[in-house]
Amino acid sequence: MPSMVVIATTAVPDHLRGALSRWTSEVVPGIFVGSVSARVRDELWQAVTEVVGNGAAILVHPAATEQGYAIRTAGTRRRVPVDFDGLTLIRMTAAPKVKEMQTPS
Fold first, then answer.
1. Are 32 and 70 in contact (CB under 8 A)?
2. pTM for the full predicted model
3. Buried b (16+ CB within 10 A) or exposed e, 42-71
4. What is the torsion angle, in degrees rounded to the nearest 10, for the CA atoms of residue 26, residue 32, residue 37 and residue 43?
């Protein structure tokens, strides 16, 4: 039975966005929404994880959990889903430090 999925992407290759738009609608740049079967959802997510590269992606889909949904991530993100007694909470990681340019004396 089809169910609603949301896939959010950041800095992914254009061909991946094209592949996702075959099954879902890109409602704003990088946000894909659709109603697909679990098999199609898993195949799409596999395609995402294989080519995400330096980008990042997140999938939200219905699941038999207390919250009613599950979250999957790929790539490097500051927000990391963490299981806390059966609830998925989002933990923020520290921002990457930028090294200052040193000028020669």
1. no
2. 0.84
3. eebbeebeeebeebbbbbbbeeeeeeebeb
4. 110
